[in-house]
Design brief:
heterodimer, A: alpha/beta, Rossmann fold, 4-stranded antiparallel sheet, about 25% strand
Chain lengths: ~250, ~375
């Protein structure tokens, strides 16, 4: 049953164990509708595991969570319908054209032919790629691919989009453009859940959480966290937390 | 269903875009048939031989002319001494040498026994044994002729104990065998590569996050290769029939159903491989080593199972291709129906069910990791 209380994601005491190893240790947080929520942490801190549980790729060991108002244990299918996903590995098919990629991803999310056609035109126009309609994805520069991948990830108008280190390996200008796309999406009401390595990107988020050893060590807006940890930037907070949590 | 269709269309795009692989998949069957049919054959034609005749009498010359009468053997050298035999074998210019002892006719008439030594180039053992069998059967037929009018039968000793099935025609054996091998290749190898490619590219995650069920994904991935495998089977049947006259004496429908059963088994083996590895290279090697080699060696395609050591014979029971090879040979060559083949069909179906459930289970477990 769908809950509607202004939150897109609600997580309480979510835990994932692999044998004896606790990858995610009883984390709790909420993400508001239309918010950009940054999920930070070192490699192995558990952020990917947490994200995979929310996307329905992994089943949690214990705890509770709803995504888009749907329970991630019992309503996985509805969860999947209300989310978009873009992984750190790039997720468009290189040997398909732009149009064919949209056709495919639109198709597996159940869009109609007409919707797919409209979306395709819209995207081609937006990125000024109309004359490249028939070219394969492999012929486009990486920055374009990533922007397209993001657009395709939200082609079915999901309520929430999960981005797993989406801007790996692109130049700062393209990264900036990518974030403009993210802002554009949130303006139309999409909630963005993003993991990142780049601390400057964390500043673009409405709120961030920092994970270390499976636990959320800090959560709040970048500004609040900076004053709480008396640091001038997110990078410093991150280092403080990684060293043992001293404020 | 709409989702499923979009997926299958995408898979076909992948296959059609990768035209090199597609070309290989479609051109390989006819090329292999022609190769097997014309080069790797057990039939003897114009085999070059040398004859060393110490006797040079009427009997030896009539045996010689009998040997050279058909188009099996072609006399390349008439030798004068045993030392020459070694030399021309080394040169590789003959496949077989035939030595008649001195006083051949006399020995035969007096003692009833004469000796011929047949030496074959055994670097290619299959051809060598075939040559020996041809030679000895020709000599035997000559003996049968002369023994008709004689009270005490003559005998000519030849030093070989090989048999040869005169009816054996290469194409009859390798066309069904080739269908088995190619179905395995297309189905198992291509599926495992196509699934591991999605993993390697990271698109698998996007698929699993989508509302598509894992089962739908798998079936959509397999369907194009099922289709391709059937096309390949049909190509082989047609070329085999048109070029080598290999018939389908049994029901074509039954053949197709059994074929699909085998393809499903092979597809799930491919899926199984793709759950074990996430790299295309490894998947390719595993399919080649783990599936293709056993299929080629242990299915009875090239080497007769009945000639294998007992332990290996038991081992072949575990090879699905062996059962399919039995089935397809019986249908095509003997015209056998389900009334005869029900046991083999059940075993094959058992394999299909077993491997599908195993690979689906493994696939689902992998999703949890």
């Amino acid at each position: 049953m769908k809950k509607s209380n202004g939150y897109s994601i609600e997580v309480s005491n979510l835990t994932k164990k692999f044998g004896d190893f606790v990858a995610v240790d009883s984390i709790s947080f909420q993400v508001k509708k239309g918010e950009i929520f940054g999920f930070l942490g070192a490699n192995g801190a558990g952020k990917s595991t947490a994200m995979r549980m929310l996307c329905g790729l992994l089943s949690p060991t214990s705890g509770e969570a709803t995504v888009g108002g749907y329970d991630i244990f019992s309503e996985t299918e509805k969860v999947k319908r209300s989310i978009g996903y873009m992984s750190q590995k790039f997720s468009l098919y290189e040997d398909l054209t732009i149009g064919e990629n949209i056709e495919f991803y639109g198709g597996i999310y159940g869009l109609s032919k007409l919707q797919i056609k409209e979306k395709t035109e819209q995207l081609l126009e937006k990125f000024q790629l109309t004359e490249k309609r028939k070219s394969l994805i492999s012929s486009l520069p990486l920055g374009w691919k990533q922007k397209l991948a993001f657009s395709v990830a939200i082609v079915h108008n999901p309520e929430i989009v999960f981005l797993d280190e989406p801007t790996g390996g692109v130049d700062p200008i393209t990264r900036r453009q990518f974030w403009e796309l993210i802002y554009e999406a949130t303006n139309s009401g999409v909630t963005v859940f993003v993991t990142t390595h780049y601390m400057d990107e964390a500043e673009y988020c409405d709120r961030i959480s920092m994970m270390s050893e499976g636990k959320i060590m800090a959560i709040g807006s970048p500004r609040d966290l900076k004053s709480e940890y008396s640091s001038s930037n997110v990078d410093e907070i991150f280092v403080k937390i990684a060293r043992g949590g001293g404020k | 269903m709409k989702q499923f269709r979009a997926f299958v269309i995408k898979e076909f795009y992948h296959i059609l875009r990768d035209y090199r692989t597609l070309l290989i998949l479609l051109a390989m069957p006819p090329i292999l048939i022609l190769l097997f049919g014309y080069t790797i054959t057990n039939e003897i034609q114009d085999a070059k031989i040398a004859i060393l005749d110490y006797s040079k009498d009427a009997t030896t010359s009539s045996i010689k002319s009998k040997l050279l009468a058909g188009n099996y053997f072609k006399l390349e050298y008439e030798l004068n001494g045993l030392d020459e035999v070694e030399a021309i074998f080394r040169k590789g210019s003959i496949r077989e040498a035939i030595v008649f002892e001195s006083n051949f006719e006399e020995n035969l008439a007096k003692t009833g026994i004469a000796n011929i030594r047949i030496i074959a180039d055994a670097t290619d053992p299959n051809t060598a044994s075939t040559l020996l069998s041809y030679t000895s059967s020709i000599i035997k037929s000559y003996l049968d002729e002369i023994n008709e009018n004689v009270e005490m039968p003559y005998s000519i000793n030849t030093e070989i104990r090989m048999r040869y099935n005169e009816e054996l025609r290469g194409a009859y054996l390798f066309v069904p065998g080739l269908i088995t091998v190619i179905l395995m290749l297309v189905s198992a190898m291509m599926t495992s590569i196509s699934i591991t490619r999605e993993k390697e590219l990271g698109t698998m995650e996007s698929l699993l996050v989508s509302p598509m069920q894992p089962l739908q994904i798998i079936i959509a991935k397999m369907l194009p290769y099922l289709f391709l495998a059937i096309i390949d089977a049909v190509i082989i049947l047609i070329v085999g029939n048109a070029v080598f006259g290999v018939p389908v004496r049994g029901s074509v429908l039954l053949l197709m159903v059994e074929g699909i059963l085998f393809i499903i088994t092979a597809l799930s083996l491919g899926l199984l491989i793709s759950t074990i590895t996430s790299s295309q290279q490894v998947a390719l090697m595993m399919s080649l080593m783990g599936l293709m080699l056993p299929t080629i060696i242990l299915s009875g395609f090239i080497y007769p199972i009945s000639n294998m050591p007992q332990i290996i014979q038991w081992l072949t029971h575990l090879i699905p291709a062996k059962w399919f090879n039995l089935i397809i040979k019986s249908i095509m060559l003997k015209g056998a129906g389900l009334d005869i083949l029900w046991k083999e069909t059940l075993i094959l179906a058992g394999f299909a069910v077993f491997f599908i459930s195993l690979s689906l289970k493994k696939f689902n477990i992998r999703l949890q990791k």
